[in-house]
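Hello again, I could really use a second opinion on something today. For a while now I've been wondering how a particular protein folds. Please have a think about how the structure follows from the sequence. Here's the protein in full, and shout if anything looks odd to you:

***
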Amino acid sequence: MNFRLTNTSNMVFIYPALVALLLQMYLAVFISLGLLASSFVYHNNSEKKFLRFDLIFSVLAVSYNLYLCYLFNFNLIPFGVASVFLIVGLFSYLKAWKTKYAYYHTLWHISCAAISVCCYMGYAFY
């Protein structure tokens, strides 16, 4: 096991899973737990074959979040907050390849989890 910051930051994906469970959004629970597992396995394994597993759940998460945004009509509050996290996340993702990978990649994970929580809450309450 490799418990570097970039690897343990995957644990933030438990929060969207818990929110989805509380909201009884079981497909979202599956996607969030799949993202947690795939990200953890990918970052803790030297074999890059697990990248495909991580990419599948990442695409599922993005697609499902966009679908939820469509269902709550891109309401300004949840979509706006998710958009702020998206900007922070994309900045962090791009910055991680240039400098301070552990720090910026952790921000990337936190942003992704926050986006999912915003989309789940938006669907449930708007």
Notes: The CA atoms of residues 41 and 50 lie 7 Å apart. Residues 5-125 form one domain.
